[in-house]
């Protein structure tokens, strides 16, 4: 048996399924290895939208336009995150287990 992810891990946006791991791999490639967390946030129009939190070291550049352009070269248009959130490692909300707190991340993404 191989663990391939959670059953409810798929993001359903506009009738299409998006794997968060695929988008995270593309972000990892185009950012030179920056930590990224991809998840879906409810949207009245599309069902869910793809959101990516990218952890950028202090002082590092973050150009959302060029990042989206690079992602379009690697992913289908519907897989490119509609919302990109820049965050520092210190601001990343974690659970007591050290894993990302997806509820808090979703709240932060909705607020931006």
Describe the structure.
About 30% of the residues lie in helices and about 25% in strands. By secondary structure, it is α+β, with helices and mostly antiparallel strands. The strands form 2 sheets. A 3-stranded mixed β-sheet has the order 3-4-5. Strands 1-2 form a two-stranded antiparallel sheet. Strand 1 (about 10-15) and strand 2 (about 15-20) form a beta hairpin. The protein is globular, with a radius of gyration of 14 Å. It starts with 10 loop residues before the first strand and ends with a helix. The model has no long low-confidence stretch (mean pLDDT about 90).
Label the overall shape. globular
The main β sheet shows up as: 3 strands, mixed
Question: What is the number of E strands?
Answer: 5
Rg result: 14 Å
Tell me the structural class.
Answer: alpha+beta
Strand order of the largest sheet: 3-4-5
State the helix count: 3
Proportion of strand residues: 25-35%
Quick take:
The chain has three helices and five strands, in the order ββαββαβα.
């Amino acid at each position: 048996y191989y663990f391939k992810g959670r059953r409810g891990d798929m993001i359903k946006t506009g009738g299409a399924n998006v794997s968060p791991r695929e988008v995270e791999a593309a972000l990892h490639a185009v950012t030179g290895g920056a930590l990224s967390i991809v998840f879906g946030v409810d949207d009245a129009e599309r069902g869910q939208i793809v959101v990516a939190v990218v952890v950028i070291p202090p002082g590092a550049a973050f150009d959302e336009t060029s990042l989206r352009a690079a992602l379009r070269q690697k992913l289908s248009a519907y897989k490119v995150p509609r919302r990109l959130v820049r965050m520092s490692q210190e601001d990343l909300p974690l659970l007591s287990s050290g894993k990302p707190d997806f509820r808090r991340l979703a709240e932060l993404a909705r607020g931006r």
